[in-house]
Every structure is written in structure tokens, then in C-alpha cells.
Amino acid sequence: MKLLLEKLKTIDTDIKKRKPLIHHITNYVTSGDCANMALAFGASPVMADALEEMKEITGAADALVLNLGTINKNKFISMLAAAKVAKMRGIPILLDPVGVMASQMRLNMAQELINNGVQIIRGNYAECRALLGDKNFGQGVDAGNACDDKGEFARQAAQKFNCVVAITGAIDAISDGRQVIIAHNGHELLTKVTGAGCMTTTLIACGAAVSDDYLATTVLGITAINIAAQHAAAKLQVGEYSGTFKAKLLDAVCNLQGTIIATEFKGKSI
Amino acid sequence: MKLLLEKLKTIDTDIKKRKPLIHHITNYVTSGDCANMALAFGASPVMADALEEMKEITGAADALVLNLGTINKNKFISMLAAAKVAKMRGIPILLDPVGVMASQMRLNMAQELINNGVQIIRGNYAECRALLGDKNFGQGVDAGNACDDKGEFARQAAQKFNCVVAITGAIDAISDGRQVIIAHNGHELLTKVTGAGCMTTTLIACGAAVSDDYLATTVLGITAINIAAQHAAAKLQVGEYSGTFKAKLLDAVCNLQGTIIATEFKGKSI
Amino acid sequence: MKLLLEKLKTIDTDIKKRKPLIHHITNYVTSGDCANMALAFGASPVMADALEEMKEITGAADALVLNLGTINKNKFISMLAAAKVAKMRGIPILLDPVGVMASQMRLNMAQELINNGVQIIRGNYAECRALLGDKNFGQGVDAGNACDDKGEFARQAAQKFNCVVAITGAIDAISDGRQVIIAHNGHELLTKVTGAGCMTTTLIACGAAVSDDYLATTVLGITAINIAAQHAAAKLQVGEYSGTFKAKLLDAVCNLQGTIIATEFKGKSI
Asked: Model-level pTM greater than 0.90?
């Protein structure tokens, strides 16, 4: 764990130094929030999804985020094209399988993207179960208590998909197929703002853009938003709730430093 | 009115208990705000508009919101498909006829959706007049003073469209074709943030998802955002305006309870 | 300069008086922010991009904003149709060439729109250089120090494109091909929120909708957001950053008056 915590600091420093460009093909609900998150963490976002420009846009990016929210056929074709460019260039591809348990189309798309090769998948428990074929598990349900099972489940998924898999929620489980990190920094208010998952994936991408230790970059992104949520929640005054929290969450990510993230990280390797 | 106020409490409690899933086919300008509103009120939002998944997404939802902002042909085809599923399943369909006075295409779409059967329409005065064939009335103009006429107008529209019609503005008129409720909780700051109308429709949908007393659920949603706006405005400090108001509006919706809404409701049945 | 400052006041007053309707064909990342900005400055926004309704929507608008963020073929076709209507009606067309240095498709689209006639172009340095054929200049890089060159560059671009060109950044250069205004009100926090450029273009459009002195309206919009950013930043408390800044920026635009803008403007004509 000590090594991992040291890595979190290095990766965070590198994000601030290199200001990586994160290409998002994403939904229209939370795209503005994700762009602001990337800026807050020290990276530079670009949202673009026209097939004609994927070669150039992904061609200049340092990481590619594929988010299945409000997906449609056209965007998916652009995702495949962008993924091809990312693969050729060796930049990381992150998949956020939003709502993949809710439609066969999304599940098919997610599987095709995974088959083409992705480096990191981040979803909630229901989404990750759907990816493993358990489509009827539920809608956004999060099995926060089943901590050890969640870790084992992340490991299995990571092995099957041959990439890092993060199952986020009250408790987070991150695995590269061998090591499993269980993290406990989650905050309940993150469930009260839309796009917390999407923003987490963006933060993970910022790290993955500057380091190929994808287990560490995934822990970094998740821990960053969780600790930021704790900081933001701690500053809320009587009567303040999700609206003020959302603004303060962005403030808190701006103020994060690698040392803070490493110091406040609560979790273990299993 | 006493019965209505009691219902507001029950419906609000049921939203919090059942956390209904609200399927939105909506515009890209305010979709994030609507999603956050649904969460703030205790419901769960899903935004999706690909034709291929309408059967499953609407098939799992408790209410369907059709919002004509930034509409196009493809989204409209998905709306028709989703409406079909909603009708078959008996879940409520809400129409927000954004800008329907501004283009023939939107008017045609709104009419086709209404002909297919909707349970609740919420628009401003100009939008509702356009639906009744008076297209040249204006752009977003709100006849706040013509209180009694507005009520009568809501009643006529409700009778014609055979559903609940809400005309929102400084004064709100809600009718199911027989009863008319005139509500006076509107706040001027709601005209300074984009999407106040869309968010109102979302809040109405949260109630309609758990109760088929659509007159009551419409009064609930409208009163909820209006009272939240009053609470938010009361907390603004010198120099704070629409930006801070927007955050505090969301806070205030989080803090609402059915008893507060029922107690602070100002209005009458005519 | 004195004349210019007087004009800023008049234009600002006219926006508040006439509440012009600003038709945006724009991206889904910052469209909500732009709509809120238009409202904050006293105008009325409409976002619409379906080809079928361009004739009516642009036909009722007082200015047309064409923003190339998240552009695709369909939206571009609507832009051409809307531009045709705007031209026929004599209302101003504003081009925001978002990311035009990053893809040949965007560059081609920007050039075609410019060839069809636009009144105002606002971009950052890299975007404006790309428009002039220097595509490999960089990604969002802003040459803040090269003040005099930037002015000369704006003048050349304005002459070439036969319209007002604004190059915004730490220092802003605005030219109509003859006069050049260099403005120094920029604030660094504007680089920490997504859509600062898009929102600036929206504010410029609010003025252009009520005055055909496009040099003055461009100075007004840019100075408005810059001064608002200064006011917002001055109110930030310890720990507050881009999230709170974004809300306070909108507050500050609401509170702006022509006299404040004219008094606090820092710049010169060269």
C-alpha cells in the first residue's frame, strides 16, 4: 500500500505538470460537469463525437473516455473509430457503462467496446454485474455492505475483461485481476448529484493519461472525488444540500493535492 | 382544498419511499438540471432517447417526460415509441411543449403526442395558447395578471386535451377539466434561470409516478419548485443572484417535506 | 475611447430594455451555461437546431450564435440554413470557432460559415490562428504576453474575414479591420471553468442584437464577463474555487450595469 500511496502523489503531480487532453465521447446530461472536473484536476477536456474528426481529436488526446449515457448508434460508431485510434496510439481507453443493465443495446455496445480493448472500466455494482451477464440484477442498486464479495467480483471482472475494473459506491472495489483495493472514502452526498460516476471516470482518465499504472490511476481518481466530497460536505452549512454541494465538490477537487489524497485515503489491499 | 393538501403530503411521502424512476426524453440544455431535481425530490432520473432501447427504458420507468426543447426528428420518433410503451404499461406521460409557439414542427409534434394520449401538460401561457391554435400569441409572454381568465383557459385546454393542463408563471393555473386550482407561490427569480419550466415538469412527474391523482401531483410539483424558490431567494445575500439562486433552489428542494409544501401553499380552487 | 465607453452604456441599457432573443446553435456541453448567461445579461435565449424549424426560430430572433463545439454534419446543415435566414433579415451572425485548430472538419465548416458572411468571430488565439491557415499552432494555447502582435493579428483577421474579430485570453484584442482595442480585464479563473469562451460569445450576441456597432458590442460582451469574473473572484472565500466561482460569475453578470462596465474597463485603442 505504501508504494501505491506514493504513486498517487506522483500521478497527481504529473497531471498538474502535463495538463493532459482528455477526449470524451459522452452524454449530454453531465458533459459540462465532466469538463469542469477535468479542469479542476489540472487536465484539459475536449468533448467531440463527429465521426469525421475522431482521427484528429483522439489523435491529439492523452486519454479517451467512452461514456454510454444518452448513447445512440451514431455516437457508438464514433466510439469505435476513436477507440481504434487510441489503440494504435497506445493511449488508454476508459469505459463508463452507464445504465448498461437497462438495455440490451447498451450491453451489446459495452461488450463490443470491451472486445476491442479497454484499459479501465468504472461502473456501479448493477452495471458491472450486467457486464458479466447478470442483466436482471437491478437499477443502480449498490451492494455497499457486501464488501469482500465486491472485491472478489471486481477481480473476476478484471480477469475476464483483461483490464482494470472499478466498482464504485459506498465502498469501492478496484482490481487489475490480481491485486484488489477496497476503498472506504465514499460519501453519501455523491448519490444526490447526477453524474458523480461520470465525473469519477473523468478523474480516473486524467491520471491514466499520464501514467500507465492503471490500478493506481483508478484508485487516484476514485479517492480524489471521494475525499473532495468529504471536504465539500464538511463545509455545508445548515440548509445547504445537493446544489451547494455540487459547487463545493468542484472547489474541493481544485484544492486537492497528491499528498492530501494519499494521507486521507482509507482502504486496504486484499 | 383540505383534501388536496392532505394528498400533497401523501404523494410527497410516497416519492421518498418508492424512489420512482423518471424516464426523460428531453433537451440537452437543461437535462442535467432536471436530473438533479429528480434526485433532490427523492426520485431517480434516467435520460435516454435511442429508439432501440425505448421499450426497455420506458418499460422499467414509473413515469415518462417528453420535453420538446432542442427536439429533432429522431428524438420525436423515440418519443412516439416510448409513449406507446408507457400507454401499454399505464404509466403517466407528461408533455412539456417547450417553445411550441415558435415553430410549426414543434406544434405538430406536440399535437401528435397529445393525440396519442398524455396525462399531464405543463407549459407557460404562450405555449398553452399555441397548443389551442393561437400560435401568434408571442414568445414566452406570461399573462400573470389575468388570473381568472388563466384558470378558465386551463380548464378549456384540459377539456380539449382530456388531461391535466398546467399553465405556469407568476400565477399558476392547473385544471383537470372540471376543477381549477389557482396557485400564487410563483417567484420572479425562476424567470432568471434557464429550465425552471423543465424542472417543474420533472417534479410533477415524480409525483405522477407514484399517484394517479394527476391534479394533485401537478399542484405538488408546481408548489414544490415555487416554495423552494421562495426559500432559496430568502437566503440570498447582497450581491447574490441567479447563479447562487440556482444552487440554493436545488438545496431547497432537497429540504422540502410534504407538510411544508401543504402549509405554505397559497391558492384556491375555483 | 470616450465615445466607445458611452456606447457600452447605451448598448447595455438597450439589452435590458429590449430583451433580445438570441438563437443559439451550439454544443451540449455549455448550452445551459450560455442560456443562463443570456438571461443574466437581460436577454432571452433559445437553443434549437432542427433544420425544419430554422426558418421560424432564426426568423424570430435578434441575433444568431453559431458555436462549433460538439458539432456534427446535421447541426452544420442547420447552421447554414439559419445563417441564410439571418442574412436575409439583417440580424447579426456570430461565430464561435470552438476547437477549429483540432480538426479539418471544423475548419472547413468555419470557413464555409465565414464565406457565407458573419459579423463577429470570437475565439482564442489558437482558434483564430487556425482560421488564418496556421492549423498547427497548438491546442488552446493563449499568447497572453504578445499584446501588440495580438492586436495586429486581430486587425489582419478582421480585414481578411471582413467582420469584427475578437481574440480573447488573458489580454483581449478586438478589431473591425481598422480600429484595434486591447483590453486588460481578463481573469485567470475564467480558464478554470468550461465554456467561458462560449459564454463570452453569448454576451457579445446580446449586444449585437440591439446595436450594429459590432466593435462596441464585442468590447461590451468581453468586458462584461471579464469584470464579472473579477467581481466574482473578489468574493471567493478561503477554499472556494471554480465551482463557487461559476455560480458567482452568473450573479455578477446579473449585477452589471453599463456604467460599471464603462468605468472599470481597462484598455486602449491602438
From this structure: yes
